[in-house]
Amino acid sequence: MTSRDLILARIRAAVGDAPDVEIPRGYRGPGAESDGLIEHFAERVRDYRAVVHVVDAAEVAAAIGDALARREAGRVVVPAGFPAEWLAESVIEDLTTVDAVVTTCAVAIAETGTIVLDAGDGMGRRALTLVPDYHLCVVRADQVVPGVPDALTRLDPVRPLTWISGPSATSDIELNRVEGVHGPRTLEVIISI
């Protein structure tokens, strides 16, 4: 008899007369309650030190213009497929020289404050959102879902997915927070309702 067999035999003997216990598995799945999603998502994104604006759909272009003006972002990357009506003008530059990137998203998760990009229209390739120091993302209200299970039902698993939960940050062993190490130092989100 091996040591493993001996240990397992002792465990079986100790719990042999114990009744079976039903373990509740009340996991929240897709289609969970969706009241207050926008407010919940905005609150979670703010918790990550991101700047959040909730605006009417007709105000998205002005909100983008204001955000870029505040950052004095003159050189902006805009991925193919980004809605033209949201930008008065855009300049596409080499990634190493840009001030900002403006994207849409595939889905946004209220519970975690996470934005998911899938390299589709308006999102561009992954490097586009990792190189510039400032990322401005426009999220439509219909893209906000309650939790991760809901998000997974909307995503194509073969597409390259980038999950963003706030500005890029890491901490050293002494818990000193450093931002902008492996992505944008600043994340700003415009939620179009």
Automatic annotation (TrEMBL):
Domain LUD: 88-191
InterPro entries in UniProt: FTHF_cligase-like_sf, LUD_dom, NagB/RpiA_transferase-like
Pfam families: LUD_dom
SUPFAM superfamilies registered for this protein in UniProt: NagB/RpiA/CoA transferase-like (SSF100950)
Record-given protein name: LUD domain-containing protein
Biological source species: Acrocarpospora corrugata
